[in-house]
Structures are given as structure tokens and as C-alpha cells.
Amino acid sequence: MKLSVLLVGFLVVALAGAGIVSAETGSDSPPAFPGQPQLPHSFYGTLEAAGNPVPAGVPIEATAEGVVTGLAGNPLYSREGRYGSVDPLIPRLEVQGTLATGTDIAFFIGGIRAEVQAGGPGGAWTSSYPFKPGEVTELNLRIAQAVTPVPGYVELPEMTLAATPVVTTTSQVVNPSTDMMIVLIGVLVVLGIVAYYLGRRADKKKASPEQDSGTPKEEKPEE
């Protein structure tokens, strides 16, 4: 019996140790094994084609070895001069798959390879951007020729945090007016006067029997 308990305890300790080792291995950014899925890298920014804002309805796509395309968020259709948003409620371009951290990602506007600019206006334009799982990056894209929207594209309204209605509950507190306060004060004064009068009357009733008991009664003369 003791041997069985020892064996069970040894197995529990061994399994716990294996779980700790696997957790420590998975904490690193690069995948522990080839082909391991990574957290998506999200992108948003401005779009430019031949020096003009890209019209709405142009597909924006990101590709690299190991990137899964054809999912929600990749490709992503452009809006007027931009794609995605810093607002978390607006869909962004999502790069996900089994690629390793640091893999160069290529971006396309309407099927044309785009130059990329990270960090907003003023940055350097490059041909790709490294994959960083779990991050959200502002990345501007541009191409040298004009593009046209996909035929039949219908732009849906955006649901932003500013447009999301916020339901607030307010407790209804009665704010007494000046007239009401005067009436209440008058009622209290009247009640005070009545209480004072009743108290004085009660005191007089208590004093009357005492006076009657101390006064000798007159005896009638005998005939």
C-alpha cells in the first residue's frame, strides 16, 4: 500500500514538473516547435496610391511564409485613404499563422506590392515589416499607381467607441423647494406650540388634586 502511494506521488510530481517546463518554454516569443501558431500581429494606417488616398473597397493583404490568408482580417478592405483603426472596435489587418517572430511581412494594395512606413508620417519607407506576435502597429502603405475598388463593394458603417451608446442610470433625488421647506417649518412650529400647551395643561391637572387634598372640608352645623 505504501509503495502504491509513493508511486502515485512520484507520478504527480513528474507531471507537475513537465507542466512547469512546458510553460517556461512557451513563454519565449519565438515558437517552441516549427509550425506552432502564433498570436496575430494587427496593423492599421493610411493608404496612398499614385499620391492620392486609396478609395474604399480595395483589398489590403499581408503575406509571408507561414501566414494564413483568406481569414477575417486578411485581406481587409480599405476605407477612404486608410485601413483599420486605433479604435479596437474597427477591424484591423490581422497577420497570423505559423511564422516565426521577426519574419518579414509583405503588404499589398489591390494586389500591388506596397512600401511601408511605421510610426506615422516622417518615418523611413521600407519594403516589409517584421512579424511581432501580439502587437498592434500603425503602418502606412503606399504604391506608385492608382487602383480601383472591387466591383459591387458596399461600405458598411463603422461601430466606434464614440458611437457606441453608453447607458447611464441616474437616481431620482427629490430636491425640496423653498416653499415646501417653509410649510414644513410652519408645521413643526405649530406642533411645538400644541405640545407645549398640552404639557402645561397636564401639569395643571397634576397640581389640582394636590391642592384639593390639602384643603379641609367644611362641616355642616348640627341642628
Any overview of this molecule?
This protein is an alpha+beta fold. The chain has a domain at 41-143: Immunoglobulin-like (Sandwich), CATH 2.60.40. Helix content is 28%, strand content 21%. The protein is built from two helices and twelve strands, in the order H-E-E-E-E-E-E-E-E-E-E-E-E-H. The N and C termini lie far apart (125 Å). The relative contact order is 0.14. Mean pLDDT is 78; it is low at 1-8, 10-33 and 168-174.
Summarize this, please?
The chain has 2 helices and 12 strands, in the order αββββββββββββα. The protein has helices spanning 2-26, 178-214; strands spanning 41-49, 52-53, 59-63, 76-77, 82-83, 93-95, 104-109, 112-113, 115-118, 125-126, 129-130, 136-143. The longest helix has 37 residues, at 178-214.
The structure class reads: alpha+beta
Number of separate strands = 12
Give the class-level CATH name of one domain: Mainly Beta
Shape: rod-shaped
**Unreliable spans:** 1-8, 10-33, 168-174
Q: Give the overall pLDDT as a whole number.
A: 78
Distance between the termini: 125 Å
CATH topology of one domain: Immunoglobulin-like
The biggest sheet, with number of strands, parallel, antiparallel or mixed sense and barrel status, is: 7 strands, mixed
